[in-house]
Design brief:
By secondary structure, this protein is α+β, with helices and mostly antiparallel strands. It is built from five helices and eight strands. Helices cover 38% and strands 20% of the residues.
């Protein structure tokens, strides 16, 4: 008995693009990576397309609509509560090469050390009422946290939808190795 279905849409390439149902779990859409929820990316570094270091890391990515940031102007606690309630998450298994994995670890380590030094400066100066030392410690703490967040991130979620998730931050060589995303409507 044949498994031919005459009502099934074709799974052929359309203008160099691959239909979403004909490809694997990841595609490129311009400078963005498009994946299905819970997918495992190819066994290559997402930054430079070199072979990935094993084991691949399974990460959870969270996203909420950017308009929710307006709630910070009203009250930070209200924003945090609502963001935790309405956020969406998706697990994705990603790979980094040794060079990019080491770069990420160093950024996180420097951010941790800088934050600790900033806290020590702030608390050590609080007894002497040295305003400049407290300010220096606070600036070092804030700068270290921002540098750690930016340097330690792997990819940035652009949007988490019902059927797919979009990411920014992948290298052009990795994106060029993926099929083009073509969304059927």
């Amino acid at each position: 008995m044949s498994t031919f279905n005459p009502y099934e849409p074709p799974k052929a390439r359309l203008d160099g693009a691959v239909r979403m149902d004909a490809a694997g779990d990841c595609w490129r859409d311009g400078k963005q990576l498009v994946v299905r929820p819970g997918c495992t990316l190819p066994d290559r570094c997402i930054k430079c397309n070199e072979p990935a270091e094993h084991p691949l890391q399974s990460r959870r990515f969270y996203w909420h609509h950017p308009a929710l940031y307006l709630l910070v102007l009203v009250n930070l606690l209200i924003y945090l509560i609502i963001a935790l309630i309405v956020r969406r998450k998706t697990p994705v298994t990603v790979g980094l090469c040794k060079r990019h994995n080491d770069r990420r670890r160093i950024a996180i380590m420097l951010a941790t050390v800088g934050s600790l030094i900033g806290l020590v400066l702030m608390f050590a100066a609080s007894g002497d009422k040295a305003g400049l030392l407290i300010l220096t410690g606070g600036v070092l703490l804030l700068a270290s946290l921002i540098a750690g967040i930016v340097g330690g991130r792997v990819m940035v979620v652009s949007r988490i939808g019902e059927n797919y998730t979009r990411f920014r931050g992948c290298g052009p060589a990795f994106l060029a190795s993926l099929p083009t995303f073509y969304r059927t409507r």
